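Q: Can someone sanity-check these two? First one:
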Amino acid sequence: MDTQNPTLPAPEEQVGGAPQAPAEDMRRADVIPPIAGAPACGPADGCSAAAEDAEAAPADQRVDFADEEAALAARDAGLELGEETPEEAEDEAPAAGASDLYAGKSGPELVELFARQLEELPVQSLRREAEALKIAFYKQRRAAVEAERRAFVEQGGAEAEFVASADGDEARLKELFQEYRRRRDEYIAALEAEKQANLAVKLGIIEELKALSGSDEKLDHTFNRFRELQSRWKETGPVPQADLKDLWENYNLQVENFYDFIKINKELRDLDLRRNLERKTALCEEAEALVLNPSVIEAFRRLQKLHDEWRETGPVANEFKEALWERFRAASGRINKLHQAHFEAIRAEQVRNLELKTGLCEAAEALVQQSQASRRDWNKAGDRLLEIQKTWKTIGFAPRKDNNRIYERFRAACDRFFEAKRAFYAGVKEETDRNLKAKTELCEAAEALMESEDWKAATDELIALQARWKETGAVSRRHSDRIWKRFRAACDRFFARKSEHFAAVDGEYEENLRRKLALLDEMEAADAAAGGFELIRDFQRRWSEIGFVPIRRKEAVQKRYKAAADALFEALRGSERDRSMSRFREKAASMRAAGGGRLRSERERLCARVRQLEQDIAVLENNIGFFARSKNADALVADVRAKIERARADMAAAIEKVKLLDRENQDNNNENK
């Protein structure tokens, strides 16, 4: 997981610059708008503790599934109406704008409106009004429940324990729907009974037509009776769909039989056939004009009316019968093809919509299966799901039998995604709370050091605290700026005091540098042989009494001081050697005067000393190889090399004395000859 670390200083003395923004901002767990049906969360919601400190997405990024969710809520509440009857389809006007009629109305207003509609409107015309009204009501109801849920969580309640309060308006709406269904069922039952009664009436009319064809009554009376039966047939309402085809065929057969029966009265028969021809010709023309109607549905419905009128219109003369029917059938065929093509296109589109929505379900389910390890991963996945939701809203309905099923599958995938995301951010909140506690402790530690005057120790401790700050993870955004400013203020306070302190020290260091350079000039001009060790010790004392110099000059000044001191000691050691050799010459001269035996004895002692020193040097040089592998090799090797140099100096002095004794002994031998 990415952490939220302010920029801490490279120099040890200063916490520099403003804090950089975290590499990745922490977002709300609930900002990718949950599909309706998942707990609705928003910037003001408290539906997840993890979401509280996350960065909210803009409100206009939500995808609105309120209509779909309201429809499911109404279904779950038991307000399904089942399939609509042909009479409902016929009597209802299209519901375009119905949702606008109910928009903005409160729950009580919607319930009151439905109660009024139930009393004032025919039950067969209420279906689409009822469908639109229940969607509007449950959109209101769901919004109220979500507001109640948020308030419950904000007051400290566990979301899993939330139970929505009972709603009297919802109970009243269910009662009204129950009454609506009762009346609708009564209407459908009465309609079916009426159709059966109509069937019986029309079967009776057919029987009367049969009897009329064999009547011995006067022709004019018989024809009037025929007209009366036709009128009664038209006035009688619909019959069951299953009996319709046979009924019409039987009726038309009896009508034609009647016309055959009265053909002996050609004038009367021709007059009626002519009227039927005129009417059926007009029906053909009207059917042909329907192809120009922009609404295929409306044209098809009108065509059904024309067919009813065609069947109710009597026969025409045989020479027109076939041609006229072909004309009417051809016009009907064109409308039927348009109607069929229209619904085939709708069905094909719905099948394609189902395929597209199935693909979106699979994409959403794949997101649920992916492992999201960081806030960046979750935000990226959430953005992807948001795009999937937006795409879903651009796709139309699936086939009726699949529409709810595919939506519920999609909603379930989205719900699982947001549940997993909320669980992740619950863990993030625990982590950020731990980080806040750790950073608060770092602030307290820094504040305890900010007035310290132990500059080196406090600086080291503050640098260690800054390193721990960087290693500590992110805190929530609402605490991030405050806790960072507190920590930085403590660091800045200490380093500002340290800067002030060392600014004053810098002037003193410059004066010390000037004094030490002057002393170096004096040391480099001094005569060590004349002043001796006292002169060197005085220089050392005066050097140590001068304080620190600027660190940038420290190494060069110290190197020059060492070189000057070494030169003084070397000069002093040279003069000492000269005095030592002078004393040894005097001693050798006295030994020569005393006899050659003492010279030989002293020479042997010095030669033994030279051999001993050679052995010591060999041992020391051999030891250097062993010391090189030890832990403190550099210090040990330097000490051994110093001993070797002293031994070589002593050996050189002893050899020089041996040579002096050899010269004295030679002079002594020359004098004795």
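And here is the second, same format, sequence then tokens:
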Amino acid sequence: MFLTKKANKISDIFEKRYSKLRIPLEAVTCVLSIFTAVRAFWLDWLFFGIVILVLALEVQLSHMQKHIQELPVLGHIAAAVMSAYVTAIMTVTASKAEISLSKGLLYLIAIPFDLIVLYIVFSSVLGYILRRGKKKILAAGLMSSALSFILTIYLATDTFVNNFADFPFYYQQLLPTMLWDFVMLTLSLAVIILGVREKHFNIGMSIVMGLILAVYVQYMFMNNRLDMIGMQEFDWKKHAGFAVFNGAVWLFIIAVPLLMLKFNRKLWDKLSTIVPAAMLALHVITAVTMVSTSKNDLFGTHNHAYMTTDEMYTVSKHKNVIVLVYDAADNKYIDKIMKEHPEKLDDFKDFTVYTNTCSVYDFTTMSFAQMFSGVDFDNELTGSEFFEKAWKGPKAEAFYGGLHDMGYRGNAYNMNGGTALDWNGIFDNAAYSEKAVQMKPSTVHRDMLRTNLHSLEMYRALPFAAKRFVDEEKLSFENIVIFDFGYKYYENSDFLAHTKLSPADNDDNYFIIQHTKGTHYPCNIYDEMDTCFDITRSYIDQLKEMGVYDDSVIIVTSDHGEHSVGETGATPIFMIKEANTSHDRFEVNNSPMYFTDLLSTFAVNAGFDKETAEKEFGPSIYDFDEDSVRERTWYDRTEDSDYPKAKIYGNQMYHSDYNTFYAYTYEGDSDTLDEMVKNGDVTEIYPIKEFIQ
């Protein structure tokens, strides 16, 4: 077949002209390759740029050009197609990137040069690799695929499966990106190994073997000091000594295959096949096992219950109780603006700001369940038992049943602390179908998904000293895959952009819960809080325009306080505008407010009889004044080596480092609690039976 034969015309040109034009062709190719690599770096195509540079400099790409004539017709076609594809992708990416006009023009001018350079690169490499022999091609492919699988598929799968609740999408949205990255990284690594000079082939194999082992040791044994990704700011300086030790371990592991190559070649020959084969098999089997045995609905194929968003910005024409939950928004922000920028609160003159708050928990999932069901603290429950107690318990049934009896619809968006199945019969936007509902996204931002996935993989794979250079803002996967099933517009700016309220087409009252990212780490806390206040202003203005502001209750709060170094995370924001209440300026209340007061507070403001609410749900914020002395307890999830690791709810293969709740019981204000935490004055330690992420 002609496709497998040499391209005679190209071979003739090389035979007649190559010896005369070799030097200028080599020089031009080298310069243009560097030019292409630099522009790849501009687009953050780091690995692609490195591959081109290695081929142009270390590999001496120019010397490989003589092998172009060995390439069959099919090889030339493949090289041409690949060069056209990469050039097109570079051009499209450049058109979308925020680059200067001069750089943009440069990319347009460079298109024909890119086509030529990349064609020479691909055809040279293909021709050169074909001469290396089948044995070396297979060896390089095996070594490359082992490292690539760990980096692009295993680490992402492991993180996804064991933190499923933290990913707002399903495995099938992740899989295409992982597979594409696996193929591209495998091919790139194999090309580099096969493309280096003959004497460096085994050195390249040794380095990749060392990286396989180093990455394995890193994610298995060296990442224990890291907190949960994205939960709070990490103090890198505090762990500088460990970072040095970790780096030394990496150097040692990478050095071992190189030393073996020099001093025990027979052993190296065996291990250069055994190590990548064993590591690839181990990680493939483990990944498949994790996915196939997970109790979570990883593929979104068994969803009978889901949350709708049809009424996300719908409010009642009569009475509204609107709870705006800005994640991780701390009272320290309120303290700061009252001292430095009190004018920011001018639009909130009808609100009362509570400055002495305390949440029950320090993290979102259990806090949401406690806030909106009134469930009591119990460390001896499994995850399923906790959610059953929360949403099927007497407090939740009395509260939401009472709301419905008073003509309320209850809608919750970006809700946490349970599942749509738990909320069926609780919230009116919780839908249930007898048949499984295939969860299909309306939007997938594939480039953003790939970028953030790479950041996640590097955060787990890199040595400790290098992790701090990973952009932690790209460890979040919110709003990358968009579903229209109760979870959208979680980012503050997205939520604000879509905040266009409309009156309901019915006569129901509305109890509404809106949850946004708030100031959840990582972010610029004060910028994000300003956006949250803009959301609140938008609600105020639009409710006034609709004529329902006076009859509306607006509560601005959070699930916990700020998560960062030195912060307890126990003092969430709490502001309330009661119905038919007006002030000349915002009021400040320093009474000891505790999140166990919330359900009763919601009930009283929705119209429950105060005595009935107190009997069913406990005290409300109205039962305490600034002179009240009150005992409150904050439960902080903590890693304690004196207790066994806790199982993770929904993932029984792994255990959580968070295995206890440290209870801090105190009287006074946040300064009292901060001092207790700082001094380690733990009131009581409760072991966790099953950690709920």
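A (reply): Looked at the second one. The chain has a mean pLDDT of 86. Residues 543 and 549 are 5 Å apart (CA to CA).
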